[in-house]
Amino acid sequence: xxxxxxxxxxxxxxxxxxxxxxxxxxxxxxxxxxxxxxxxxxxxxxxxxxxxxxxxxxxxxxxxxxxxxxxxxxxxxxxxxxxxxxxxxxxxxxxxxxxxxxxxxxxxxxxxxxxxxxxxxxxxxxxxxxxxxxxxxxxxxxxxxxxxxxxxxxxxxxxxxxxxxxxxxxxxxxxxxxxxxxxxxxxxxxxxxxxxxxxxxxxxxxxxxxxxxxxxxxxx
Length: 220
Known about the structure:
By secondary structure, the protein is an alpha+beta fold. The chain has helices at about 1-40, 75-80, 85-100, 100-115, 120-140, 145-155, 180-190, 200-215; strands at about 45, 50-55, 60-65, 70-75, 170. About 60% of the residues lie in helices and about 10% in strands. The chain has one domain. A 5-stranded mixed sheet has the order 1-2-4-3-5. It starts with a helix and ends in a 5-residue tail after the last helix.
């Protein structure tokens, strides 16, 4: 009888957790869809031959926003502060995010991050994943533009006020520590064959983060 009661409690907790996970996913997806709808009301412009959604605000900002097929937004403030060659470098960086579908994958990872907020090192892992995402996009951009131009563009915009970042947004600059910005610039100034590779323990922590979700089906 005791074991039966404990079994029902276990099932109840598991179902409650899955229900919470589902509701959280729907909430984040709805918020992302509403943001995307709003962005698509902004006028389309062509910058260096790339279609973008232009925001007529003084904030310096450029980002992909959405899921699998995101929209590229750019502000008038960024166009005012950067010249054509540096804007091209920023667009090449965002093209890297589009190539790797970062907005989609980090929407899912951000959902898991909120589910596993109680696990140790969750936030530090998240910040490292954001850094690796940006370094990977920087590496992609260096195939099209000079790495020095990209580093200069990063320095020009990193100290400007930023719009709010969300999981389904891949911006040229994020609200990260000065150390992360320094690492990005140092990596850009290195030789291409020495570009930083993801460390094994990052992926170990990611697996540990997902472990509670993976073992739920085996509870009985």
